[in-house]
Design brief:
Number of helices: 11
Strand order of the largest sheet: 4-3-2-5-1-6
Largest sheet: 6 strands, mixed
Shape: elongated
Number of strands: 12
Structural class: alpha/beta
Strand content: 25-35%
Order of helices and strands: HEHEEEHHEHEHHEHEEHEEHEH
Radius of gyration: 26 Å
Helix content: 40-55%
Distance between the termini: 92 Å
Length: 299
């Protein structure tokens, strides 16, 4: 009886299809289409998205080749397919918007996930002008940029090392409709025209030492060590602190600034930063003041 109930739950889901050629702006408009049709869940390139949160899946855009991207998007891999099926049964969405480049692709996705055929199909030309679609294609072709309809902070760890840009759009389609903020992330996959890229350890070291020089609390960087990993760098630094600063507060503030700047400048998620105070620097004037205080205490 439990198996029958689970199957019924899946069959009761109302599937909406959003179809358009690759690069015409489907992911860009996905939240708008979902909002207009009262849909809370989106399946896009291997991800199950609930409003602004990724609740299941791995983005097909992480694949090393276009062929692997297509396989990921239609859930050819048994492990990915089973995980998505479990998530759908867990969250019990009343309706799902599925994005695809063709009716055939939508059919493959619904078949692989055991979902019913689309209740309604929306085509990109229904919601975008020819000019808008041509602009989207040009950006895809010349810049290799793809949109995922979730905020950058939701996917940054998964896409460490990719070029990421946040995008926020305030939408108010018709008079009387509720406004909403569509938050999305723009990425360049590994198979874009730029190809794969790596960031030298020297870059992280230079950023760290540059920020240290700009810090009033830090007098000198004595040692810097960077260990790069696929998911992001580990950074170790030894510094001397200027006399008069609270050491713990100074190191905590510098660590936060360093993490933020590296992630902004390189799009890499910093895994760990260790800052050790190895000494305290005191200029001649302050040394004299301290010596005078000591002499006064002795008298």
């Amino acid at each position: 009886m439990q198996i029958f109930s689970s199957i019924n739950q899946t069959e009761d889901i109302k599937v909406y299809a959003f179809v358009g050629p690759s690069g015409t702006g489907k992911s860009y408009r996905a939240q708008m289409v979902a909002n207009e049709n009262g849909i809370s869940y989106i399946i896009d390139d291997g991800l199950l998205i609930n409003e602004n949160n990724v609740v299941c899946g791995t983005s097909a855009k992480k694949a090393p080749t276009k062929l692997e991207t297509v396989k990921g998007a239609i859930f050819v891999n048994e492990k990915d397919r089973n995980e998505m099926k479990k998530a759908i049964k867990k969250y019990k969405p009343k309706s799902i918007l599925i994005l695809g480049t063709s009716d055939g692709m939508i059919e493959k996705i619904t078949e692989n996930l055991g979902l019913p055929k689309p209740y309604k199909t929306i085509y990109i030309q229904d919601v975008a002008t020819e000019t808008e679609m041509e602009t989207a294609k040009r950006i895809r072709t010349t810049q290799g940029k793809h949109v995922i309809p979730v905020p950058t902070f939701e996917i940054k760890k998964d896409f460490s090392g990719y070029i990421l840009d946040p995008l926020q759009i305030f939408k108010l389609k018709d008079r009387g409709n509720e406004p909403y903020m569509a938050e999305k992330s723009i990425i360049r996959p590994t198979f874009s025209y730029l190809g794969k890229f790596t960031i030298s350890d020297t870059v992280f070291r230079q950023i760290a030492e540059y920020l240290a020089k700009r810090s009033d609390a830090i007098y000198k960087v004595m040692r810097t060590r960077v260990e790069s990993k696929p998911e992001g760098p580990n950074i170790y630094m030894e510094v001397s602190i200027n006399y008069g600063y609270n050491i713990l507060e100074a190191l905590r503030e510098f660590k936060q600034n360093l993490k933020r700047e590296i992630e902004i400048l390189t799009t890499m998620s910093v895994q760990d930063i260790t800052i050790v105070a190895k000494g305290i620097h005191m200029d001649d004037e302050k040394k004299q003041q301290v010596e005078e205080k000591i002499e006064g205490m002795e008298e």
